[in-house]
Structures are given as structure tokens and as C-alpha cells.
Design brief:
single chain, about 210 residues, Beta Polymerase, domain 2, five-stranded mixed sheet, two-stranded parallel ribbon, 4 helices, about 30% strand
Length: about 210
């Protein structure tokens, strides 16, 4: 059975079982993606893991995404509306060798919150911490939600599209205080334009 047929059959089963919990679905590059409401992530995840016809026993990855510069055409195509932050889950069924991608969108752009799935797939623990750290997405019910990749004194979320390239603060060792200190960034914002030098008639095959 070809991959596309497998994904189509899986999509039909999911549509039958999940019904109105699926906002939309698509098969692209041989992979099935379904979008569900954020409020349903726990119930859907538990069903996908426990139902014998799905058996998605393995969580491969969880990642955050900031759609703020996605563009009107793509936002309309994927039905994003005015939602800015999303969470993407990659699942694997070892029994059936099926893969599934789930997309949920946080309802609040100012304070994005999605339920944690650590009680269903413990592997989500550090993935959710990473998304919290880099995107500021809060995972309700997470047992230990704190920064993972940035420093404890870090300000902001560096993977958000509006986060400045230089950050907000910098740290250095202060000789007078004999310790590491934090201070506002001292780098002046500037636009860097590369200076390109080419030989005369460069690339002209007739010369």
C-alpha cells in the first residue's frame, strides 16, 4: 500500500472518530497534518495513544511557532485568522508505522496557553520547556515549567519574530564587583549592507 493511500485511510479514520474536534486536515509531502482546537489537545492525545486502531505511543517532537509574519495569503490558506502562536506535535505509531502531525493555536496572543501533554507522553517535558523558553507559550499542568536553554535572568523569548537580534540585556564580568552583572544592551542598532567587489566583465562569457 502506497504512503499516500495509507495517509488517506488514516485521515478518514481520524475524521470519523474525532469528528468536529478536527478543524482541518491536509496531506502534504506524504505526511498527514490535522489541526484541532487547543481545548481538545488532552482528550485527543489520550485517544490517539490509547485507541488500538491508532496506537500513537511515541511523541517524537513538540515545537512552538510564531505566525506573526506568516503573510495574509498563507494565514488564510491555513485558517490561522488572527492567531499568532501555535504548537506542533509529531506522533509515531510503532505498531502501524504511521506518523501524524497535530497543530493547535493558542487562543490568546498576549498570553498563549496550551495544556501540557506530559501526563500522556512524558517525553513532552523538555520539549514543552523549550517552547516556553523560546516562544513564551505556557503549558498548563506542566510539572516543572521553567527556562531550558536561556539563562535564568534572561528577558524575553528569543524565537518570537519581534525579538531584537541583539536582545534586551547583556552580561559581563565586572572587575570592581568581582561578579557577572546584567546591563542593557550597549550595541547600537545598525543595518549592515555587504560591500561586493567584482572584476569588470565578471560573468560575461563573451568578453
Amino acid at each position: 500500500m502506497s504512503t499516500s493511500i495509507q495517509e488517506e485511510k488514516l485521515a478518514e479514520k481520524l475524521q470519523t472518530v474525532l469528528a468536529d474536534k478536527i478543524v482541518n486536515s491536509q496531506i502534504q509531502y506524504g505526511e498527514l497534518t490535522i489541526r484541532i482546537h487547543a481545548r481538545d489537545i488532552l482528550s485527543v492525545s489520550k485517544l490517539l495513544r490509547d485507541e488500538s486502531e491508532f496506537s500513537f505511543d511515541t511523541l517524537i517532537d513538540v515545537c512552538g511557532i510564531d505566525y506573526s509574519t506568516y503573510g495574509e495569503n498563507l494565514a488564510a490558506k491555513h485558517g490561522l485568522g488572527d492567531k499568532r502562536f501555535g504548537v506542533i506535535y509529531h506522533l509515531l505509531s510503532v505498531s502501524f508505522n504511521h506518523r501524524l502531525r497535530i497543530r493547535v493555536l493558542a487562543d490568546n496572543n498576549d498570553y498563549p496557553v496550551v495544556d501540557s501533554v506530559t501526563e500522556i507522553w512524558p517525553a513532552a517535558n523538555w520539549f514543552e520547556r523549550e517552547a516556553f523558553d523560546l516562544y513564551g507559550i505556557v503549558f498548563d499542568g506542566h510539572p516543572d515549567l521553567r527556562r531550558l536553554l536561556t539563562d535564568y535572568g534572561f528577558i524575553g523569548n528569543p524565537f518570537r519574530k519581534d525579538f531584537p537580534l541583539t536582545g534586551y540585556i547583556e552580561m559581563r564580568y565586572d572587575e570592581n564587583q568581582k561578579r557577572v552583572i546584567y546591563q542593557p544592551v550597549t550595541i547600537e542598532p545598525r543595518e549592515i549592507t555587504p560591500h561586493v567587489i567584482r572584476e569588470e566583465y565578471y560573468g560575461d562569457l563573451e568578453s
